[in-house]
Amino acid sequence: MRYMYNEMGTEEKAEIEQQLRSNWALREKLRVLRESETSLKKFTLQGPRSKTLQAIMQYATHAHDVAATGATVEYLWVKGE
């Protein structure tokens, strides 16, 4: 990944490029990664649904209230509260 994003020094990059010249499997992995990156760029990221955010916020609020009492969230989760 660092090679794909040019996030390495010149010596390390040269070593990777030497390996790529002599290692077909490594070249193939790089090709697949690049294809995957191209495919992923075609998608638009969507945020979580409102219902999901509400559930997370409700859990977080409940966990905060539980922490104030000294009980553990895991204990209440098992009990179903």
Characterization of the model:
- The structure is a single chain.
- By secondary structure, the chain is mainly alpha-helical.
- Helices cover 72% and strands 0% of the residues.
- The protein folds into 2 domains: 10-41; 50-79, no CATH class.
- It has helices at 10-22, 24-41, 50-69, 73-79.
- The longest helix has 20 residues, at 50-69.
- The chain starts with 9 loop residues before the first helix and ends with a helix.
Order of helices and strands: HHHH
Number of strands: 0
* Low-confidence segments: none
Global structural class:
mainly alpha
Mean pLDDT across the residues is 84
Q: Roughly how many Å apart are the termini?
A: 44 Å
* Proportion of strand residues: under 5%
Biggest sheet overview: none
Instruction: Tell me, briefly, the overall form.
Output: elongated
Radius of gyration: 24 Å
Number of helices: 4
Could you provide a short overview of the structure?
This protein has 4 helices and no strands.
Q: Which terms would index this structure?
A:
mainly alpha; 4 helices; 0% strand; 2 domains; 81 residues
